[in-house]
Amino acid sequence: MAGFVAGAIVEVEKGNDEYYVRQVHTENPLLLPFPGSKAARKKISWGFGPLNVAGYVDTSSLEIGVEVSILGITLGSFSGNLNDGVMINLDLLLAKGSVKFHLKNGKELWVRIDVDVQFDGKYHEDLEIFSW
């Protein structure tokens, strides 16, 4: 499935002899209220190095929905089941590699980050986000 995702929405304002550019922060639709068991849905708000993640894990079904950004560039929203894992391969101008969300020990959310950043080094880590 191919598609286009806008990485950032910006507002440009012209001053006297200069311009101001501000990123517009939008609400993550993955965090909006939803039908079903609220107790089973755990919020994700986490970051490491160039990676930032916001979303949820449903601890009863192991469904995951995340919005992922690398170096402040929003890659999009991704979902799947932690039993299978959710893999995101990326090929950006300044960052290349992959990010994989997966389950360990039946109740731990982990992320495997394998990303090389052109100006900031290499990130090759398997990290626990949280457990329940």
Summarize the structure.
With 132 residues, the protein is mainly β. It contains no helices and ten strands.
> Strands of the biggest beta sheet: in what spatial order?
3-4-5-6
Instruction: Say how many strands there are.
Output: 10
Find the structural class using helix and strand composition.
mainly beta
Envelope shape: globular
Strand content: over 45%
Gap between N and C termini: 33 Å
Instruction: Output the radius of gyration.
Output: 17 Å
SSE string: EEEEEEEEEE
Number of helices: 0
Summed over residues and divided by their number, the pLDDT gives a mean of 87
- Model regions low in confidence, pLDDT < 50 over at least 5 residues: none
- Classify the helix fraction into a percent range: under 10%
What's the main sheet like? 4 strands, antiparallel
Task: List its salient traits.
single chain, 132 residues, mainly beta, 4-stranded antiparallel sheet, 0% helix
How would you describe this structure to a colleague?
This protein has about 130 residues and is mainly beta. The chain has strands at about 10-15, 20-25, 40-50, 50-60, 65-70, 75-80, 85-90, 95-105, 110-115, 120-130. The protein has a 4-stranded antiparallel beta sheet with strand order 3-4-5-6, with no helix packed on it. The chain starts with 9 loop residues before the first strand and ends with a strand. The model has no long low-confidence stretch (mean pLDDT about 85).
